[in-house]
């Protein structure tokens, strides 16, 4: 498979009054065409910052310290603003965290989709764009009569679908979905996730899912990246990472989520709080909250290494398989089908 | 919309300290935080500097008249310099010249400064006290009180202030104090009520108000010690804007000669106007420029402080 | 929509009644017996006085007087002016209302548009030099002393540069031989401008709707507009009034300029603040992500929603704009409502002052009403029942 997107040692800091916030630190991964990547981690660990870096939509106080983002082998940060503008939505589209608020309240929903099409395909007439928007509405399951309605006339689920339709408008090769379903109730959430997955397979598109919810990520991702405090701690095929987590943080994160069908177990909270990114801990950033931390963890930054085919890790003391047996059983019972299915392609 | 820094959130306290001491500490802390934010706004700081400058300028009046200046010559209302022709351009004895009746412009300017402060602050204070009380009561009690005061505000908003006051002023010459009170009262029942009511409404639905009610606090106690403190920052902000509008109205009405005020910046320009010196604008610049500049700068100063406060009160305006 | 308009109209009429009542009693409460004004006014002949006394109905109670005043008010009988005896107040006001209307409308539309555009631009460039400069200049104009500003404008443009006439409404030398009265020409001018304005609006509305109007329709729209204006001018020339229209227009420029300078900053500063809030909205970020050009994001996303609160405060500031208008009229001797109100007040002409004050109120009420409807049209979330949607 050919590589669509590649992040190389991406490091991005925010300048604030208090100092430099190290929001992303040395993140590397690559994404193939048609593949889906899930980024999981607690709030504020830099997931959204990665999405914004790929869109080149960082706030004015952000600074790319080092690293590159390659799209089809072209460095995104070497392009001019105008080139990037034309690239957006055409190549990389995005489903925003708060779909409710990502529609302009004073224009009809259909209008906002047509606008995206005619902006990027100047040769398309408005009527053609309208036809395409109608078929997109059908694809995501909104009656096309509602094209001319305003966002406030839509329900939450419908807005979410409309936002998905908007993301698909220009047939992008990559869609970044930032917490696409967090604001919805579980049933709608599941339905929408499945629909996105169906569409994605149909048109062989790449996808980056961003969520704090391990179960969502496990359900829809081919490969999973676990982030903590601006660093990628573990990255690998979904099945590998969640069945045999090597990083203690991955394990703790999984333990912190309940499983409905599996055995009951006490939810394990992770003690302490995420570190202050103004002054992150030395060595491994997770060491203050890690049960397995050693002197080495406190002093030396763990290197990013490949431990198996496509499975990367940054940890001095990876956990042994038997230590996570109980967790693994629960995971299999709960989401085994989902993991298997998504790993299949 | 307005997330204020709450002044009355009960923090970790030890019972050994009296409640007022804790409150004082909290107030001090929130003041310091707000100052930090205010400092960020260059416009606000510029306003503060201007106000301080005007304060010093105004405070120099009693000093000057009691030490350097001869009251016979430099009295702002009845003074007269018999030594020269009037109006005289700026000279060593009259730094900003004299007006057509032989009075010293600088002395008038200084004397008026204090009175403008008094007028602006007094009427703004009345506005804010009424606006806060009425707005809070309307928000807390709702129903008839709410409807009644809101309709009054609607009607007052409709009133063209200046024409109305010109008509009233032409018939009964308003003097300093009644004018300040009228401006204050009209302002207080007007638009500010609507804004402060909206703020009070957003405060009165917060959980700690219910908590206070459950704990048996009387309406009066809840309004005074829980709602009003949270409305005050916004009141203070609108007080700045009220000062501006009071001073501007006073100056305009004085200019048209419908106020019974012995001396003010507006009066100074009025004097020049009725004597016909404003037709030769550039030649007699000292007759209008100092007073005109003073009015504009003074009003702008309060307005700027208001804008600076706006960034404190309304965090969505802040730079992220 | 109709229910909304009717409901608002009802409120407007109620407010109007209360307003006129207040004005009436306010002037009644002024010191000095109203009959003394008549008796001591040398302009009123001896014979007319007794008749006036009975006409005034002073034998009746205050309440009855009020009732009859209100009755007459709605019949258009506002009494007779003292200072311009025996001209009826109604006639004087009707002559002046259009002039104030044109001045007020032109200046307000101009200042709102300028304020809107500037506010949009400086909010988009927040923290840059242009932002600080425009804010400081804006505050200076906003808090400027109106009469002085008017004097400065007159001094620069009329006295020093001699570009424009000093003040007044018309140039008497030109009009002494004119076959028309100023009011006739002014009326024609207003109607003509209204027709041309509606025409231009229609042209732009029909040719430039949609998201992506072609270059050709832009050219068409502008050339049609130019043609329309040319036709109107030729028509005026054929009628022989073009030169007089030009004279009135020349006299209008300075008052409009002054009023615009006074008012634009309010809109600009509000628009800036309002837009600083909307640029943080998610849909603005989404619009950027969509790869829309910067201008489109600014105009169609950030500015379009920021316009709504700005229109609200436009409604609130109409009254103060009217005050500014009155000062401007007086300073430029523009014979409108504000100027006559001022003259009437200074000469103790009670009927005229009451009438002018009442009409100022009516004028403002109508402006409020229009702005309210405009707001409802601009915001799709308003469902015309007075509540905003979810």
Structure characterization notes:
- The complex is a heterotrimer of chains A (about 350), B (about 325) and C (about 400).
- Chain A folds into 2 domains: about 1-90 and about 175-345, 3-Layer(aba) Sandwich (Rossmann fold), CATH 3.40.50; about 100-170, no CATH class.
- Helices cover about 35% and strands about 25% of the residues of chain A.
- Chain A has 11 helices and 12 strands.
- Chain A has an 8-stranded mixed beta sheet with strand order 6-7-8-3-9-10-12-11, sandwiched between helices. Chain A has a 4-stranded antiparallel beta sheet with strand order 2-1-4-5, covered by helices on one side.
- Helix content of chain B is about 70%, strand content about 0%.
- Chain B has helices at about 20-40, 40-65, 70-75, 105-140, 145-160, 160-170, 175-190, 190-205, 205-215, 220-255, 265-275, 285-315, and strands at about 175, 260.
- In chain B, strands 1-2 form a two-stranded parallel ribbon.
- Mean pLDDT of chain B is about 85; it is low at about 1-15.
- Chain C has a domain at about 90-350.
- In chain C, helix 5 runs antiparallel to helix 13 (about 295-330) and helix 7 (about 145-160) packs across helix 11 (about 240-280).
- The longest helix of chain C has about 40 residues, at about 295-330.
- Chain C is globular.
